[in-house]
Please model this.
Amino acid sequence: MPLTTQLVAIAFALFVFSLVFEMVRRRHLRERYAIVWLAAALALLILAAWTQLLSALSNAVGIATPANAFFVVAFAFLLLLVLHFSMVVSRLSDETRVLAQRLALLEEQVRTTKNFSPPEQPTETAPGNGVRSDTERSRRVRAGTST
Model:
């Protein structure tokens, strides 16, 4: 691989490393996903720095130029990352649907409970004040006028 291509590949891998670290530091990327990105960047850095390994890999696969093998490996990592994140998005979509269904059931239960009114209590005759219900008596007790 030509020296300029090798330097660009190393610079790119280091850029990905620094970008991932900065995103984790600013809490834009969770650590569990950062590990996947860091592993991909590390693999690309190793292949870019160790040209003999990259040449052996390109010869084994049948790619004429080691630089092309580097981009094939980078593309393979990106495909794996997309597959991984598609799996995560699918799982989160299913969990969101289940949570929305549970929330709807709970809201219906609360609505039903609010609309349910217990049967009226029989009224009592309070001496000197006429007829009062239990609810009126409890309101007056809370208000401080319990006569």
Notes: The chain is about 75% helix and 5% strand.
